[in-house]
Amino acid sequence: MDLTRRSVLTATGLGALGVMGYTGLTRPLGNEVLTKSASGLSDRNFPRAYRAAFRPLPRLAPYEVGWDDGVRVEKYAVSARVGTAQILPNLSTPVIGYNGSVPGPTISVERGTRVHLKVRNRLYGVQHPEGLEHSHESGLVLSTHLHGHASLPEYDGYADDRTIPGYAKEYVYENDQPARTIWYHDHATHLTTRNVYSGLAAQYHIRDEAERALLPQGEFDVAMTLSDIMFESDGRARFDDKDHSGLWGDVVLVNGQPWPVMKVKRRVYRFRVLNASISRSYRPYLSTGDAVHMVATDGGLMPTTRSVTTWRHAPAERYEFLVDFSRYAPGTQVNLLNSSNPKNVDFDHTGKIMAFQVVDDPVDTSDPTWRTIPTSLVGSEAMSLTPSQSVKTRYLELKKSDVTNVWNINGTTWQDVIASGYTKVLADPGLHSVEMWDLHTSSGGWFHPLHIHLVDFQIVSRNGKAPFAWERGPKDVVYVGPDEKVRVLMRFEREGRYMVHCHNLPHEDHDMMGQFRVGLSAGAPDPHDPIAAARPAIDTEPDDR
Question: What is the model's pTM?
Fold first, then answer.
């Protein structure tokens, strides 16, 4: 697909029309409101709920497999480039995606497999109208973060580790953590919101024997990526982050399809759900009122299954749960709905997510997971920590400055980090040390999904009480609600500098992001410098390599 610089800018919904406001807002931003729509689509072109068929995520195969000193090595490559998505019934939507698809292709590997992922920047001449000063004259810059993986700093997608068009960076991942649902997405400074909204996001799964023994596999192990979007009248994505406060679309997508319908057999299914929305948090529930059975959080399996009828699901969080469809008669439609949370902006149809249509196809009852909801699962290092092991308690206040109107953590912004020559840190834990961090929102009642790179943590308490049932597993994102105080506990097992930031992406970009330094004294040589240690190289190879 050949597009000029101007047409790409327009096609991705990032032109002048991107500053248009929502239709019919009657209360200030930040209130819980219900309005008709955010899109400029005609009624004819607006998608209808439960019309599109559910579409599994695409899978990426390695282009090379080998061994290195007894370790299996798999090599993958993706190209960030312009593509076209068929989301609307009568219109096409230009996107920017890994290999041009939205969502991008899923990578699935066995625990202990070393992965080399080459990310190519093929976004020549593509620009976002805002943030040009943060991009490059030849096109968009990228930085790829494997969210939920304990990467070396130089492979962690540090925000200012930039890959410009015509270059590629090879990331190396050891995948030595327990099985989990994680994801890779763009993380470039001040461009993350637009790059991810345009489509640069994809799932990544680490598998192991423990989850295989307990949970459904194959066609009954279903990955779902949630997002929301709004459109211009011609099908382009409309962009409006309301002065960097948040972006809420009026169309909910599951794997790139609006409110799809999935046919399910009368048996237990496992769902891996990633919230890849820019700002929207969800409160999903089944239309039948039945419970789902939570089995895994961001960092993998929970110690025990927790049955819940609803849960809060913030941007970047992943939850895995089981649903037993054997209880429903063939022909039953079970809808996955959304009752939302405070500080979202809701529209006529954002209370829906997708539907399941129960069919009477034969079920293999020899599969032990077909009708089993396990109760005991698998412990983890993070969930085994105790507060008595903590050597230091730190306080992180998440707020918006009354003076500069900029989002920050403890008064620090990413611009402060840049100005310091990347030396300013929010914390400096020792290598292998355990710390307690107290997180608090204190600005206008906003919620902040806080992501701490490198670590899995345990949520110890929320407002002095026990954490919610669904979050009693290893986490790397914590939903810090309006005026909530959340205490988390973690161990730092890798040396170097890592980021901590809000995953409401307009907040991250402007400018709620800082860093911490593990095991290094201030000014000491850094062999894993996140910008200098593994530089991108000129890309001369074909797309499949």
Answer: 0.93
